[in-house]
Task: structure prediction
Amino acid sequence: TLSLYHTDGIIKYIHQSNSIMMFGGMKIATIATHLTFGWILGSSNSNDNGGSSESDFFFPQARKMMESIMPPFPNGDNNNGDSGDNRKFVSSPIRDNFYQSSSYYASTFALITTTDESGETNIGPYQLAFPLEVCGPIKTLMLVSRPDANTIRNLKRTKKCSLNYIELPPSFAFDNELVDTIVNLGYPGQTTQEKMKDNNCFDLASSPTTSHDDIPQIISNAFQVYECTWLEDRNVAAALEPEPNRGPSEHMILRLDNILLQQQWKGNLEDDGGRIMPRLPITLGFRGGRKFWFARLQTPFFRLIPQNKGPKYEAIMYEANRMDPDVTFTKEACEQLLGIPSIFLRPALTGIIQQAKANDVSEIDIEFVLKINEERSAKT
Result:
């Protein structure tokens, strides 16, 4: 059933493509077979060795077949060509919105919810919303936007927003209604009431963390939400090109107040940092004056870190200082833990953190680790 379902979706996807009109049923079936096997074999996403899987073979084979029937690039070469001038670097003019007008920049995006003057929730899709300060007592994100966007107006009034991240359905082809809704929500020049009439996919719900009027609703069918506050006193403009040379864009630093995760994804994070990854949609932005480009994330994979490079305590320190925001480990403390087998490291760190909190210790140093070892030895 799974094979037939995916194959059917793939064939429909191929037939609907604007680039491919009609071609032999045998080639469709062959491509669909490669994609289907690649999808099924790679869908578990649990290659613990981080190495190649069967999908690493099937997907490239399907890609080659697709490229063999795709029309050529305007210059007569395709993406894999090695011929002469087509592979040379040439200068591309640095235009406004260079990341989508002068180059290629792929990333995920956030659906940002804010509250307008009437109390209605506004949804705005944003590609340029990314981590800024990732360590320390305050974690922040940078949001870049048009100054006249509904999101910016609402943020300046309420200081609050929520960045909602969605997953794509577990099928090969995009959900057209979902993608069309995202595009419509990003269309400029509309009021919240006008644009939200096009919201056919996203259910809104109150935040589970607070009932304050200025806290916007969140998208209940998102898998992850960043709840944020605009740090009005952080003067970003001082670090940018002075007016009037600077283009029409707004730069806002958002303090990360809370991270909401669906329970399944919270549990996944706690399982060795994650064994699967969410099906995040990818965007390449608005291009050509009329097209929003999207892509599907293929099966994520990982590689284990090198075991023979750099000080080994750094790997322990990296893991230890990510486990609890209220407790940190010193370099010397982590060096003392080098003898712990990797399979037992996280449980050991959890136990040390629990004892630190029980003793009102916020920084775990070598003395504290030695004290714990002495107490454990005395009990055995």
The first strand starts at residue 110 and ends at 115. The first helix runs from residue 2 to 16.
